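Structure first, sequence second, as always.
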């Protein structure tokens, strides 16, 4: 499928067939997330794949959206709050890969390193969450390409989900992504016209 077709075809799917999703497809989704870009290549997104009926049933207590636990697979997209400690390593890797050629960072990245390392906790979580969002979008588009449906869900009790998934404070769950074969074909949602979103061209 062409990328533009996947973009145009993607819908939030809230009704799934009971058919299981093969492991190879789940791996394809995770690989798509793994290949997503991230700021300073920090790659903060981590995943938990929830397939068992028992585990999915536990999610019922974490969200009012029943379709989440009814999907044959749920991917919990998380951020690792400790990745900021790898910033120096990531910057070194990027310099060695010539990623900074032609930019001031090619000569000296100390100032950049200090700015990123000194972010307060709220700013850091927002930064890491934004990077996770890129990975999640890659996953949802690859799902369309594989004939799967998904839905980006953020309506859940984060602490309850962390408890169900047995996650420590190092991680935060950013989204739950129910995945399966669609049992509905929703129409395209209304979109603003181009002249409503393009503020100006300079």
């Amino acid at each position: 499928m062409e990328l533009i077709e996947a973009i145009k075809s993607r819908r939030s799917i809230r009704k799934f067939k009971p058919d299981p999703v093969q492991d190879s497809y789940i791996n394809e989704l995770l690989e798509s997330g793994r290949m997503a870009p991230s700021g300073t290549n920090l790659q903060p997104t981590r995943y938990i794949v929830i397939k068992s009926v028992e585990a999915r049933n536990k999610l019922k207590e974490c969200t009012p959206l029943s379709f989440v636990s009814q999907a044959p697979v749920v991917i919990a997209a998380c951020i690792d709050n400790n990745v900021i400690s790898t910033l120096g390593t990531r910057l070194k890797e990027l310099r060695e890969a010539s990623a900074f050629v032609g930019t001031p960072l090619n000569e000296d990245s100390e100032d950049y390193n200090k700015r990123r390392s000194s972010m307060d906790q709220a700013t850091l979580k927002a930064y890491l969450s934004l990077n996770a969002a890129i990975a999640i979008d890659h996953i949802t588009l690859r799902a369309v390409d594989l004939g799967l449906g998904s839905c980006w869900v953020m309506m859940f009790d984060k602490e309850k989900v962390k408890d169900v998934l047995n996650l420590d404070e190092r991680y935060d769950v950013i989204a739950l992504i129910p995945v399966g074969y669609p049992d509905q074909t929703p129409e395209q949602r209304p979109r603003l016209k181009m002249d409503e979103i393009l503020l100006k061209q300079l």
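Margin note: DSSP finds nine helices and four strands in the chain.
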